[in-house]
Fold each of these.
Amino acid sequence: MSGSLNAAAKPKIAAIFTEYRPNSHADVIVGRLLGDWGYTPHVRVASLYADQLPPNDMSREAASRHGIPLCATIREAVLAEGGVDGIVLVGEHGDYPLDPLGRIRYPRRRFLEEALAALDELGRVVPIFCDKHLAWQFADARWMYEQLRKRHIPFLGGSSIPHTEAVPPFDPARLSGLRDIVVVSSGGLESYGFHAMDVLQSLAERRTGGESGIRAVRALRGAAVWQAMDAGEWPEELLLQALAAIPAAAAVHPRRLEAEPVLFALEYADGARGWVVQFERLIEKWAFAFRDDGGRIAAARCESDDDRPFAHFERLTRMIETLVLTGRPPFPMERTLMSTGMIYYAIEALYAGGALETPQLAIGYGLPEQKETTDE
């Protein structure tokens, strides 16, 4: 037994993942829910489902060590012990095909579809967590969102990075007047670019009046990124301030070190503007800088671990547990739908060679505190 609840009283979780191997998202999330990493869980993993078993698979050993069934189907995992109280979906890592634009066809829609069918069979509604973006294509993401919404399922999704500590700290009240924001990132355009989009949206959604959607997305690569900066099409000052928040960032201008950056530019319906600058090797953290409607600038890095123990996943895991224990999501699931669409259409724009109008991202929502302010 561990934590404040005995084992029998803890809510039961079905952990469903693409693969469970060292340093995978299943390792750092499901592993914590199993009590690894020095973590004390307040829920109990009742079943596991692994879509793939790589040579360094950890799921079989974990199932044996904890006396948990490693189920042959998602249905079996959800129906374990008469039905679970929460579902964790980790569709990240594994050997899956790419679409023509390089996006990984992770089976997140299938995972959710099969989990929902099992819940429908039980006649139950339980909280669900889905790691990172909803799906590799936006049509699937929209379907997932609609299915969750019509069932009134408490849901948490998205990246771990928006929940990291901002260093240096700043007054979040300043985000109410956000007009321009730059997020710097690195790594894979889809996999790491989604983290950057989720960071951007987690900040941008705090504008006065809440979120009203994105009307257009533009993408540039290579020298065109720097040419657009020189032309004043995106703010060099915010880029440099975001990079300055990362101690290990090079002191020279990034244009001297990065010949092939990618820029994603997002135009919000209310006139706010966001940019994600994706570098190949310049940095290994995410950082941002924004300008408010008074012209003031704030900048910070997202304080994530680059190696074990990946402490930022501890905060995310605790949020997952809180979702299951309370049934209350920490933010609207529209954020995850929006971030999913942002990375999807950004990559579409990059390979289309320009800008795309995005009526699909006319997604409006507000945070609870924004509603309270409006009600007053």
Amino acid sequence: MNNTPNTVNGMKVAMHNLGCKVNSYEMDVMAIRLREAGCEIVQFTDKADIYIINTCTVTNIADRKSRQMLHKAKKENPDSIVVAVGCYVETGIDGVKKDECIDLAVGNNKKSEIVEILNSFLEAKGDFEDKTLGGTSIIDINHTNVYEEMTLSEMPEHTRAYIKIQDGCNQFCSYCVIPYARGRVRSREMEEVLAEIKGLVRKGCKEVVLTGIHIGSYGVDKGQPMLVDLVEKIADIDGIERIRLGSVEPRLVSPENTKRLAAIDKLCPHFHLSLQSGCDSVLKRMNRHYTAAEFEESVRLLREAFDRPAITTDVIVGFPGETEEEFEECRAFVEEINFYEMHVFKYSPRKGTVAAGMKEQLTDREKTARSEVLLKMTKEQSEKYRSSFIGETVGVLWEDCEEIKGKNYIIGHTDRYVRVAASEDSPRFKATVSGEITMETISGFLNPETLLV
């Protein structure tokens, strides 16, 4: 390391992100700060001076993928600085310290300091206590109540921006390690969120998606839930045309909250309600804090308040001890709810969680069979929902161009997050400026996931 520079200025940095939208947001902010410090951001396949892997730890498989990418980086350039950032660092710091492919470890609440941490590492020229720079690059995430302020100053997409509003989770579901990787709920100051969005509007932002680890808990650490208050404030910002919520718990959908949300014209009628199982006994073993009946009531409230809302969800199949009868109860429940889309996951044991130690772990064959049943169902339900808009005129937020089967299309989404395309030989293709809201008549399907205008 004796020949390395003292700062990151002028160095080539390759970055790779694993995991959720929160990780993506944080990676975007880190990239912006590195560019501002004089770094050149290059492709991960290029030879770089520094490799930063924003890791995930949600499953044992995610841990393995994180290690694989870290080792791949060191193989790409043995003389490079390989940096492990994020959730895998928080839950596996002992393994990180022993891994010879990793030069530097940065915790979740230190990502905003990535430039300063790298500069300290470079200035030390190898003379440091350990991969955490004596503990300065990682904190005890389980005992912090401080929200790490990170702000997007550039648009990562053409018209849509994900906005992180909180971090951490207090739920402790029996299958989930995230509270240990992200800590307790910490909410961002509302004024900071609004200021960030106003800045992005000046850069062309028309739609914001509110994201976090558990956004329904926004504000609880400050005394009371404030998510609906925040949405109302965002709606007052000139230039914002759409507000979309990330994943929320069904408990957020109370009669009062639903009434307030329905009064916000800019709010997209697209709600991702986290279910995980439609069987009460499985929900109890998962330590989920609602029943199937309560979830169904939340869906009923949304469908009464909004016109054909797009309701999506997550479902885990093959949870420890899930009997054929319990799965059938779940299958019948999700069929009755009739979601726009279901994200179906086969249960994967995560070391360190209660569920990983439960008896009656199912075989992968059993989990795969149950997964296929729900995947077939959601494919049919999704196509039926999309087809309900054929012949209608809807608002489309055009976002990007894409080649599909050798032909160019402009791609966008409706407020219900139905994907729409206009072909290059359509007058709409040439007339539409990326980012404009236009009214289009849906004529049919381009493919099972995309409607054509």
Amino acid sequence: MTMKRVIGFALFWVAVGLILSLILPNTFIEVISIILCILAGYNLFCC
């Protein structure tokens, strides 16, 4: 239970870092990885 929350927290902040990297030219893969990290982090941390 605790490890799921830690992994979810880490994935959430990875997604935040990826959002900050959007000052670079936008690519489709960056946007997809942001969405996946946010969804995975939310599911692992909140559920």
